[in-house]
Each structure stands twice: as C-alpha cells, then as structure tokens.
Amino acid sequence: MAIGYLSIQAQTAHGALPLQGVQVRVLDDQGNSVYALITDENGETKEVPLETIDKSFSQTSYFSGLPYVSYNVLARAPGFNSLYVSDIPIYDGETALLPLTLIPMQEIQRQPFQTEISVGKPAVASDTARSQQGTVADDSRILRQVAIPNPITVHLGPPSSSASNVQVSFPDYVKNVASSEIYPTWPDASLRANIYAIITFALNRVYTEWYRSRGYSFDITNSTAYDQAFVYGRPIYSSINRIVDEIFNEYVRRQGQNAPYFTSFCNGSTVSCQGLSQWGTVTLANQGMTPLQILRSYYPNDIEIVETNIITGILSSYPGTPLRAGSTGLDVQTIQTYLNRIRQNYPAIPRITDATGSFQNSTKAAVTKFQNIFNLTPDGIVGKSTWYKLSSLYAAVTRLAELDSQGNTLGIGTVPPSSLLRQGSRGQDVITLQYLLSVISEYYPGIPAPAPDGIFGRNTYSAVSAFQRAMGLNADGIVGPLTWQALYDVYLGIGQNVPAPGPGTDAIRYVVQAGDSLWLISRKYGTSVDAIMNLNGLTSDLLNIGQILLIPRS
Predict the structure, then answer these.
(1) Where are the beta strands (DSSP E) in 53-140?
(2) Integer Cα distance of 411 and 382 in angstroms
(3) Alpha helix (H) residue ranges in 13-106
(4) What Rg do the C-alpha atoms of the chain give, in angstroms?
(5) Biggest CA pair distance of the chain
C-alpha cells in the first residue's frame, strides 16, 4: 500500500485562538481507531501516515474506482461541541491539512452536541452535468476594479435554498474548492491551470455581482449545478495549498479587458462542455504545456494571466518585494507588530528582540515558526502569502480583543433585556444585540456580524435570522424573549468555555483607560515597561481604552 499523511489543527474564532488539549481519534472506514492524538499549544497534532492507493490510479480517467482511501476524524474538547469529519480522502504522497473549527457549548448545555461534516469524493469523480451560467454584466452592474473579496461569502446550497452562508478568506476558499474539485496528485501545470480557472470563476461572480445584483446576500454558492464545489470544514492538500499561496491574486482575462473571464469547466470524462476539461488538463500537462497554454486550449487565444493587489479586509498592502534578514523600515516594523500580537495567542512563536524595524535573527525565527504553524513554506522570508496571512490573522486576534474590551464598556451582565426588537428599532438594546451577534459570529461560521450602529437594519435582520436558524428558533428576525435568552446562553457559554489567550496562567489581564501610563502600570504590578510592550506587541506607550496582558515579577 502507498502512504499519505494527515495533519490536524484545532481552532476557533476564525483561527485567532488555537485549541490545546483536544482529543482527536482517526478512524478507518470500519470505525476502528487508527490513531489517538492530542493537540498542542498551537492546536496541532503530529502528522500521521495513513495507508492509501498508489497515485497512478488518480492520474488516469480510465480508472473506475476511487483512487484513495477514506478515513474519519472525531474531535472532542471540554466545553466545546464535538466534531466528526467523515470520508476524508487520503492520497499517495499528499498531506491532508484538516482544520477542526470547534464551537463552544452554550451556558445551559450539559452535554456536547456532535456536528458532522462529510467530505466525500471530488467533483471530478462525479458524472453530474453542470449548468454554470455567467458573463460580464453591463457596466451598471459591475464593480469598477477587480478586487479579491476577503472574506468571500459562500452560500451552502443552491441559490434559492434556505441554507446558511459562511465567510472564509479568499485563499482558503480557493484551496477548499480545488481540493473539492480535482485530485491533488495531478501534474503541477494541470493543478495551476485548474486553480486559475477556479480563482477566475469566483472573481467573475464577484466582479459582475452575479448574485448580489439579484438580491442575494452572498457572492457564490457551493452548488456544482451553478458554481463550483466547496465543502466547509474539509481538509486541503499540500500541493494545492502551496500553489494557491503563490497565485491566489492572479486571474484570467482577455487582452484589453479588465473583467475576469468566465472560466466554465467540467470533468471532461463523463461530462463534456465548451469550457475547460479538468481531465484534459492532465493530458496537456503531460505533453509539456504550461498553465497558460493549457488555458488557451479551452478559452480564447488572447487570454492572459494578470495580478490584482486590491484585497479587501487587509490592514496593510503587501509592499511588493519580500522582506528577509537584513531588511529594514516601516514594513519590517509592521510585521514585527503583527507577530508580537499574534504571539499572545500562539505562544510557540518566539519573542522578537531585534530593534524595531530591523529584520534580524529573532524576527526570522518568529516568521519561520509562524510559517510552520500555518502551513506556509518555512523559509523565514515574508513574501506575498506570509504577509497576507499575518495581516488577516492580526486582524482576527485584535478584533477579539476589541470585542472583549467593548463588552466591558457595555456591561452586558447575565440578564437579557426585556425589549422586543425588529427592523426599524433603535437605541441601546439594539447596540447590545449587535454586540452579542458580533461576538457569536466569531465562533459560529454561519452567523454574520452586523454593523454596531444602534440601528436595526437589513444586516442586523439577516444576522438575527441566521442566529435563529442555527438555534432551531423561528427565523422571523424579531428579537423577543426566546431569542434574547438564546443569545445570552450562547454568549455566556463562549465566556465560560473559550480559553483566554495568553502566554500562561500567570498572566494578568489589565483594563486600560485612555491616558493610562505604562510606567504607572509597571510600578503597580512590579514589571517593566519593556516587558509589557513586548508581551502585547506595542510599539508605543500611547494607549487607548482596551486591555493588556502583563506578568508580574514573582
């Protein structure tokens, strides 16, 4: 038997919080336990080898069976609902990278529920025909620039279904789709051609506002009858992971045009179409064709591959050239700030002792460890993929801190308000509602976060309805006693069960008021200003209202 590999990382809050001590069992298709694992401080397990089928079977369209062996994973952790991921394909020579996103138990919950995700076979192995439709819409209905939607909102069903929406980062979306569509054992040029088609198809949906212009609140669906395959919570594969990190902001267009070309595709074996043949790309790659040559075999000859650096939701744009040992300046200072703050949640990242803005040995060590944790090439160089991962994770961890601080300011308490809220309502109770939904959205992927403006508008209605569906309540978008109580049960459960980030149990969380002096805080707790700044990723002692961590001298 051939060997593939499985690597697991347990997390919550969009990856902002790793979960240590999660008990993970890897099971075969008969339910027998193959491995019993426990996650470390980064939420990771050791990589384990698993028997599978020789990769040659996944590289020919004539093999009628499934060219892999499937396994199942069961994850349990105190204070969290269990997660069972079934039918995980393991391929010869590939590492399946499985994220386990666990959801906290509610305050009143005595036993964990079990969420189940079925991965199953990729779309290329299906004989289902696609009816993908789309083009560039008229100028009144398209965006002015091609931008990477970060996050992208995916509807987990056909467009008109009542299925939930999830928001994921665009690179993670592309990795998921590629892992759900094709075999990761295909030649590199074939994988790249398919990934370019996947990226461009999604960007076409966003650029033309294909669904949003029709009144939907999402960018794309996971229905292969309309769009491309996506399985929330599935593993991705190492070969696909590497390629997407390199090209996630590159897309196909016709020369002289700005719009992403409508890159329709089908498997090309059991189903044929006028677009790209997924199996056909394997044949062309084996003939020595480049990804662009492969794409031009299926699409117009004047298509080209271009790059966009417009990425929504990113705090600071990639400077354009990699940062490495010897680099200096504001961009280096930015990544040092990001790493020092992320280190609070991922303490395995070593502390940076280099001078601010100077990329030396300790900065390289921190970058390398960060890359190891998040399955990036561990070269200690901050290229495009590392920069954007740092930026997105920094935004996630700081958002959690901001929500924590906001909760202290609002004084949420433990007793729900008695008001009845609906569209058009305004005031303090609406602010409380929006805050609760914003916190819950960090841990429940299908619940969007509304804008905290104190006005119960359309976005708040959508968030309330999504929450009610998730809780099994009547999804009428009206907040009455049952919905208020459910909101508080979930919110208080998060507070009770989610571990606070920090380097250890000796850390103190100190509430900072505007104008507080680090010098006075250091005197009060018997620590140093430098220690506080390093622990919290601060580059200045000018503080806003919020929270900091510190460790007093023993």
Answers:
(1) 69-76, 82-90, 95-101, 114-118
(2) 41
(3) none
(4) 24
(5) 73
Q: Give the chain's domain count.
A: 5
Residues 202 and 337 in one domain: no
369, containing H or E segment: helix 361-373
DSSP states of 197-263: HHHHHHHHHHHTTTTGGGT-S-SEES-TTTS----TT--EEHHHHHHHHHHTTEEEEETT--SPP--
Residue 312 forms part of a structural domain: no
Beta bridge pairs of residue 260: none
Q: Two tokens at 306?
A: 């271009």
508 DSSP 8-state letter: E
Sole residue written with tokens 């060590």 = 365
Task: Tell me if 403 sits within 8 A of 438, measured CB to CB.
Answer: yes
Say how far apart CA 161 and CA 263 lie, in whole Å.
Answer: 25
Q: Is the peptide bond before 151 cis (omega within 30 degrees of 0)?
A: yes
Residues 242, 158 share a domain: yes
In this predicted structure, the answer to whether residue 503 has a pLDDT above a threshold of 60 is: no
| Calpha distance 352→213 (Å, rounded) | 47
Query: Which of 74, 91, 120 is a domain's end point?
Result: 120
Provide the token pair at 116: 């189940």
Q: Mean pLDDT lowest for which of 37-51, 267-281, 327-341? A: 267-281
Helices (H), 312-427: 330-345, 361-373, 384-410
* pTM score over 0.85: yes
Structural domain boundaries, residue 487 = 411-497
Pairing of strands 69-76, 23-27: antiparallel
Question: CA–CA separation, 456 vs 449, rounded Å?
Answer: 13
User: pLDDT tens across 329-371, in order?
Assistant: 999 999 999 999 999 999 999 999 999 999 999 999 999 999 9
How wide is the angle at C-alpha 502 spanned by C-alphas 499 and 508, nearest 5°?
100
The values of phi and psi at residue 466, to 5°, are: -65, -40
pLDDT in tens, 460-487: 999 999 999 999 999 999 999 999 999 9
Same domain, 400 and 446: no
Question: What CA–CA distance (Å, rounded) separates 396 from 15?
Answer: 8
Determine the Cα–Cα distance for residues 204 and 136; give it in Å rounded to an integer.
7
